[in-house]
Amino acid sequence: MKKKRILLPAVLILIAAAVFVGYKIYNKPVKSLTSSTADLKITATDLIKKFETNEAVANKEFLGKKTDFIITVSGAVKEIIKDERGAYTVVLGGNSTRSSVRCSIDSLHNQQAASLKTGSNVSIKGAITGFMMNDLGIGSDVVLNRCVIEVKN
Amino acid sequence: MKKILLFIAFIVIANITLSGQDKYFTKTGRVSLAGKSTLSKINAENKAVAVVLDTKTGILQFSLLTKGFEFKKALMQEHFNEKYIESDKFPKSEFKGELINNALVKYATDGVYPVTAKGKLSIHGETKDVETTGTITVNNDKLTLNATFYILIPDYKINAQMNDKVAITVDCSLDRLQ
């Protein structure tokens, strides 16, 4: 009898704890990449080359392994774009080619993006989402999302 | 001979430049999806959608990377990419079609024009015919495309534990292709 009296509340507490933890995991927000470590560091030119040489192999390397494959890309700032709703995209790459790396900036880092200068070198960390081939006639791009500006020069 | 070649080259280049002026594009278009599962609402947005519209022919193309959809919940984003859309196998989603009433849009005059788009939508390696109404807002040589339509999850062989119907909302501002 005594045992039962302890058992029931204990089980209830355990169930409550499990539900709470489950709920927390289920609702866990997508975290900022500010403090994440990059899986790979690469220059914009080399990254573009990887996709242009063999898109399927590059897709496997960057998209197949884990949900967020995080890379730090370094290169010259080609363009800084602010869209109608205030979201920033920093475009990296040389002027001689239409191919580039497009980095959608995490809104936490908008100010830093706004202060970048075209032509300067920068390192940007983000989650790679893939490669847009030039099938629309507007240049091909490697695309990174949720980007954080790491180093300004 | 050389002069003729130069002349031909000039004509070709002039044509490319001219035809370029009828095209509008963006690489920062937005497409969002909204659905429901038994437990909660599912919302996600992609902010890096590439769109090209040829105003002369009405040919319209969308292209997006499925990994670029941002969810509020990390677990949903993971399931979407790994279980449902299988982004590693099918990294891209595309729409290729046309505005069937393109002739009614006055691209040189500011205003809001109702349009109907018809074409093929590819998701998860499956291609289906879709048709939707929407609007094109012409403002100072900028075009904003807006539309909402529904797709059925089983059409695209997606194995998701959610209601079959998902709303796709398009909101893209296009600039003239120089």
Give a quick summary of the entry.
The complex is a heterodimer of chains A (153) and B (178). With 153 residues, chain A is an alpha/beta fold.
Helix content of chain B: 10-25%
Strand content of chain B: over 45%
Biggest sheet features of chain B = 8 strands, antiparallel, barrel
Q: How many angstroms separate the termini of chain B?
A: 31 Å
What does this molecule look like?
The complex is a heterodimer of chains A (153) and B (178). Helix content of chain A is 33%, strand content 34%. Chain A contains four helices and six strands. Chain A has helices at 2-27, 44-53, 55-63, 110-114, and strands spanning 40-43, 70-82, 88-92, 100-105, 121-132, 141-152. In chain A, strands 2-3-4-6-5 form a five-stranded mixed beta barrel. Chain A is elongated, with a radius of gyration of 22 Å. The model of chain A has no long low-confidence stretch (mean pLDDT 90). The radius of gyration of chain B is 19 Å and the shape is globular. Chain B starts with a helix and ends with a strand. Chain B is of the alpha+beta class. The relative contact order of chain B is 0.19. Chain B has helices at residues 2-20, 74-84; strands at residues 23-36, 41-54, 59-65, 70-71, 92-99, 111-123, 126-139, 142-152, 165-176. In chain B, strand 6 and strand 7 (126-139) form a beta hairpin. The model of chain B has no long low-confidence stretch (mean pLDDT 89). The longest helix of chain B is centred in the first third of the chain and has 19 residues, at 2-20. An eight-stranded antiparallel β-barrel of chain B has the order 1-2-3-5-6-7-8-9. Classes of the chains: A alpha/beta (153), B alpha+beta (178).
